[in-house]
Amino acid sequence: RFYSDFDVIAELGSGSFGNVYQALSRLDGCMYAIKVAHRAARGESDKDRMLKEVYALAALSDQADTATFHIVRYHQAWMEEQRLYIQTELCTTTLQAEIEQVAPMQLPLSTRYKCMREILLALEFIHRNGMVHLDIKPENIFLKNDQFKLGDFGLVSKVSSHDVEEGDSRYMSKELLSGDHADLTKSDIFSLGITMYELCLGRSKALPSNGPEWQSLRSGRIIPPLNTPDDLLQIIKSMMNPTYQERPCASGLLKFPEL
Q1: Is 35 known to sit in a ligand binding site?
Q2: CATH fit for domain 1-89, picks 3.90.950.20, 1.10.260.40, 3.90.1150.10, 3.30.200.20
Q3: Per the UniProt entry, what are the Gene Ontology biological process annotations, in alphabetical order (predicted)?
Q4: How many CA atoms lie within 13 Å of 200's alpha carbon, on the beta-carbon side?
């Protein structure tokens, strides 16, 4: 079906789950992104785990809510020889690519605020629907028609879950890494906070994946980036609060006048 219904134009990227391709549909003449799993499902439980992303995307995409503009749109999914294919809208670029393009400079302040607001709208919607993303980072924030969109729901989980997969350690909260799953929504808030911190650094310094600096960033010792107003820095610090119970929720953050 993949090769009969689509013409592969280019490989867009690769991750732990699989490869993502830009593909032209022979059915409607439109371009899409198609994520193809690296391997076949190993039994029903493995298949169910792989399908979590599909169930989440389908449930979120079906709702008439403006927040869905800030989630990469899901179209369909199917299995071929026990391998999962997920078809979504094709975005123009990623936040990661934008950061690298302007490095070592920073993205404009208005862009930083816009990114935070739009991904918070997506997060508030996801959390309100009883889900958590658990893999927020610049590579998983996409841009299309001047809109920031959250994508790659490969680690999505229920808010109440105690069985979660670990994402990228550079963006993970300390409590998630230590196995504390009491409030997974606050781990999403931390990940967006440290993503925004990296955005303000302007890629002048890569985020650590472990070690003393990793610990320092999770202990509230944050060095203010250049050209970052204090009100934005205070919002980021609140999102990265070492005590997760004291981090604001997405809806609370959206009430800040700056956002």
Answers
A1: yes
A2: 3.30.200.20
A3: negative regulation of translation
A4: 24
